[in-house]
From TrEMBL:
This is Group III truncated hemoglobin. Signal peptide: none annotated. The keyword Iron applies. It comes from Belliella filtrata. It comes from the Bacteria.
Amino acid sequence: MKEIEGRKEVSILVRSFYEKVRRDELLGPIFNGIVEDWEMHLERLTDFWEMVLLHSGPGAGKFNPVPVHKEVDRHTGSEIDQNHFEHWLSLWETTLQEHFEGEVAEFAKAHAHKMAHILFFKIMEGRSVGGHRM
Ligand code: HEM
Ligand code: HEM
């Protein structure tokens, strides 16, 4: 078991996580239907988590995940629900548990939960004001 200390570990985390996501019966079809360039996606998500977890890397200012997930919801016919977020979080925690220990790994779990609440709330809010999706 290792601690998450640098971009190398973040990259392992992101790549192992998305391998699970792509094989997940609920999430796999959604991701595989939207992401066209997986290598680019994985590097981008590594930038994101390196920024969140280690405050380093080229991610600063590059992300605005709320509109992205409203768009994902629209793309899937407004059918994202708690179940999708539960799958996402459970794969994230399993991946972390398989590879890492320590404070940063614990923060990665906690922060994903916080993001899930915000993203889910914003998706629902976006639906109820139908048409105004930003
Ligand atoms: C540069 C990127 C980010 C960094 C470095 C960061 C870091 C942090 C830190 C240090 C905390 C406080 C943790 C704690 O006290 O337990 C936090 C809380 C939180 N973060 Fe982030 N975060 C980032 C991006 C985001 C994004 C994109 C979202 C949602 C879309 C988000 C949602 C939240 C929420 C909901 C909380 C809890 C707020 C609260 O307890 O009052 N964060 N974040
Ligand atoms: C707490 C849970 C989640 C977190 C922290 C998270 C985080 C992110 C981030 C940071 C991005 C990159 C945004 C960008 O490129 O600017 C992203 C993209 C994406 N997310 Fe999530 N996500 C979560 C849950 C979900 C769920 C539940 C789904 C599907 C049901 C999902 C589907 C996607 C897809 C398809 C993309 C790629 C969008 C595109 O490239 O156009 N995410 N996510």
